[in-house]
Amino acid sequence: MKKLNIIDIIIVLGVIIALMVGVFTTKHFRQTADKQIEATSAITFQVFLRGVTVTGEEFPIKPEDKTFITIRNVPYTELNVVKVTSEARKAALPSNKVKEQYILIKDPAQPSIYDAVITITDTAKITKDGAVVGGNKIKMGLPVTLEGKNYKFNGTISDVRVSSDTEIEDAGANNLVG
What are the boundaries of each domain within the chain? Predict the structure, then answer.
């Protein structure tokens, strides 16, 4: 019998460790990634776009359109837009009325600057840490990019809701475009 060298010992130890991991996994001592998923559910999340410059006649994202979403600089997929609320930037002016200390008017210095909230729907895997979409946990503050045929906007997620299909339909019935 020939001598065992260091490489043979490393290979034998690697095989033994792999077998032990397999045994622990089958005996439920170690939890695999797919066992952490508790459910799959429809979710809606809102993307807040701050300071979007739009010089055209209307806001480019519309309800019932599809928008391609990129999460943390990783392309994901096209998702359905449920609701769009866009509003021109406002300026605060002092008011002469006693009850109102100031009034809000459309800012004449920034006529083409808008803030918008885009509500999007998708199916997510629900874990104990939250909703997972495209391998990313969807949480408030997450940077995302929305892209269509004539726009590419960067925003942040401002709300995430695990919902049923009836809630998504209700949100779509109240579409506002400003």
Answer: 1-30, 36-173
